[in-house]
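Human: Not sure, check this?
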Amino acid sequence: METHVFLAHAWLKQRDDYLVAGSAAGDLMLFHGGEFVTRLSASPGPGKAVHSLTATTKGLLCGLSDNTVAMFSVILSDSGDATSPNTHSEEEAGSSPVPQEDHFLEDAAEILTLQRLIRVDTGAGYVATIAVSPNEDVIVVTTSNTQLLTFPYQIHTSGVHSSAPATVPVVDESASVAVSAANVGGVPGAATSDATVTQSEDVEYVVTSFHQPSDPSTNNGPPGGANGGVAGGLLHVTGMDVCVRKPLLVTCGLDRTVRVWNYIDRTCEVAKRFNEEAFSVACHPSGLHLLVGFADKLRLLNILMDDIRSFKELPVKACRECQFSTGGHLFMAVNGNTIQVFSLFTGELVATPRGHNGKVRSLFWNADDSSIVSAGLDGAVYHWDLDEAKREAEFVQKGVSYYSALCNREGTAIYAVGGDRLLKEIEVPSSQLTKEFLCDATLGQLVLSGSQRLLFGAGAEPDRPGAIRAFKFPLTGESTEFQCLSAPVTRLRVSFDDQFLFAAGEDGAVCIFEVRDKEGRPTRTTGKDGEISLSAASVGGGFAGGSSYHHDGLGGHGGSMATFSEEILVTKSDLEEKNTLMLELKNKVDELMLHNEYQLRLKDMTYNENLKDLTEKFTHEIELEKNKYELLREDKNDIEMEYEEKIKQLEEHHLQQMQETEAAYQQKNMKEVERYQEVLTQREAQCLHWKSEQQRLVTTHDKYVADVTEDFEQRLNEDRQLRMQMEEEKDELGREYRETVAQVEADVDEEIETLKKKYEDKLQAEREATLRFKGENGIMKKKFSALQKDIEDQRDQIKLLLEKEKELIEAIKQLEKEIQALKREIRARDETIGEKEKRIYDLKKKNQELEKFKFVLDYKIKELKRAIEPRENEIADMKAQIKEMDQELELFHKSNAQLDVLIGEQRQRINALQKAIAGHRQILSDQQTSMRRFRCDLHECVRHLQSPKELALQVAQLYNKYVTTDDGPSAGSGGDVEAEIQLEYARQKQYLEKSVHVLKRKYAADAQEHQRENLRATSDNMLLIREINDIRSALLAAKNNLQMERATMATASLGTSAMNQEKTHGSRTLAVGGDPDVLVARQRTEIDELRRAVKALEDKLVSGSTTSRSGEVFPRQRTEIDELRRAVKALEDKLVSGSTTSRSGEVFPPIGRAVDG
């Protein structure tokens, strides 16, 4: 055992305390109880090291060194039966006797049998780990090439199943390398000597294919080797770039592959392996082209639908940095310390900025593609102007290696990081260092967000994990660090919409961060500064074997997702192949549809015949059942008649019993009523007794009060005390009297209610008993009828079951005949399937020959492309001619501009002439009007021809009015007169407008004042109405008290007047009135008068609120209302004192006065 190198072990689940261990020599060793038992005969053998073992209830899974998974089953019994997927071997092993266990130890070398071999990857490597789902239907494996694959757990016949994963394949550039089957059999002692190589499509990537390690032996050959040794390979992701118009991320690595990822859908869209290692990659903003720097050349590639194809090669070797311009029409590449700028469409060298003495490590385009920023290991950071091919700014610091540099959108500052662990801000064009911040680690990459609110840096310390550092921009020194990779970060990019941040490192992983604003604002803004956080939960998984990839991490970012373009490049040959394939599949579908329709028609015919037979049979059975139903219905009617007669007799009996019980309870009720009348008479006698007692107490109290009044003049203080004591005693006696009356009434009412409730409960119980008896009788009838029906139904069911048994026996015979026919049909179809499989095999061979022919055609296409160069030269000459024509067109544009200026001047002259003409026309019209006036005046003068004096006077007036020494002054005086009239008119108009404006303001102020006064009046009116409503409620209360007083006075005796002799005024009023009804009538008249007064006040208030705003009416009305309030208050006080102290007639006058209020 010391010579063996064990790589994996697993405990068998079918046997207790049994362990299987795998060695580097390909041996499977069996251990029991910690002791070696034997070497298993099913061991893979030399050259196939066992790197992983996993035990299941179905058997044992073994991961081998050639990316192969071997599935073994475990033998449980002497007969050699293996475990099935649906049985548990532990129970069988536990139930087996001890001799069987001994026999098992003797044949332990044959415990495992190989059931299936499946190759999970065509490349070199080994299966590192194996995991099985809980229900053991899916297997997931990881390989040494950092791939994560899955396939179903199915045991087939022994053989090697070579498969390629079903997701996006990695296209090889050579396109002629055939994948050969692994050498599995032929090893002495191996159990796979008779294994056949078959194809399987069960293996799939769990997510997608990841970057693989490079070949440790050489950097020029293909990855992996014949020996399968991949230990020591590098996983570096050397290049990464993000697209602008599509959600694409492009990566390249030392595994010689270029991969295009969709970071929204988390899939690898295209991947291709080249013959050389790729050191850098850049993606065109349109997402249709790639720029990849290889060891010997720089290639321009097209991204097709399922391939990446080269269309131009440039002689730039070992290009470590390349970058497309912002507009995409230019790109630049680095070869050592030389920077070259090319045109994308022509491939010509546009500029070669020279100045770096060391390797250039960083390139950056500004926003308008007019300048670039470069940084190198020579300690120089340059800002280049491409138009003039010169340096605008430079910052050189010897001894410091700069790894990354960029500038802001305005181009006024450069930010650089290097080996001195400092983040520097350099002003452009003065090249002065304005800011400098110390970082804890060396930063190797810098990225500025499009919104210019965050600056991201990536750590590049060797042998330390790579971290992302987010700086607040403009730089203040504040930063936040996020851990992401286990090795230094090689590339750092941010998406165009600032939603995602991408980081690639030397561990072969690409991490995707989601950039979120903590305040919920969109990140692609140019507004105020806000804090931005990187959501660690949304980190996309690495593309290496040990990294994770979250499927739901990229969907919940804040802000709106940018709309991406969907254009793709497809070659004409691919489209034609797709169309032909679609036509073939369409023809196959049509053939299958015709065949299925024919089969359906045959089945319909057979089913229709069977349906006819069944309908005839069931119609006959239905007629028989109808006859039986008629007989049963007649029997049912007879039974119903019998039970109806019995029910009538029982109802009559119950009626007699109910009448007897009702008569008995009626007599009891009469007795209780008589008793109730006696109790009422007793209550009335008690009431009379208590009233007499009350009168006696009142008379004694009055006598005592008279004695006290006589002694009041002599001993005033003592009489007051005695009077207070007697009044308290009177109140106590009154309370006792009221309490005794209330208790007696309550006791009598309670006793009556208890008796009434008692006999009502008894009556209700008797009624419920009668109803219960009726219900039980009905239930018994229903049960009897239900039992009768159940007996009849069971008899019918027995007959039906017997008949169905006969029918089922006949159906079984017919189905057995159909099974035989179907078996014969299956044999015939198996033969046809075998012939079609042979035909498919022949077609596959033809397809391989066509692929070879396709390779020849591709070579001819490349030669034809080389012949296109003369045409391109012609195109360049045509472009030169176009430039000359553009210059001529510019001259024409200049001449047209001069002509436009001349036209504008001529138009101004025309406008001036038109104004002069209008002035002359105005003068002419004025002269014509003056001539008309002169004619009119002349006509008036002609009338005085008969009187010379008046004629001379009129002529002199005409002369003074129209004739002057010069025509000019007369016209000027007329113009002055009209000007004065216009000025006077304007002055009057302005004065009137000012007066109107002042009146409007006065009107607005008066309206507001009127509105305020009106609101104040309405509020006062509302308060008065509310007080009137309160007075009315007090009036109702007074009315109620009045009615109560009248009721008490009607029951009182004639001696009530003697009780109130101390109230002299009240006694006189009662003597004068003679009768309380007269006093009530007087008080009613007073109430009516006061109501009329209140109505008049309300009318005054309404009229005052609508006609006046001065408020002069309200003070008098308020005083009247206050008097009414005081009267109501006195009324309430008198009512309270009158109801508690006495019942004399003195109460009525204030009642009348208060009620009027």
In short: Residues 808 and 814 are 10 Å apart (CA to CA). The mean pLDDT is 78.
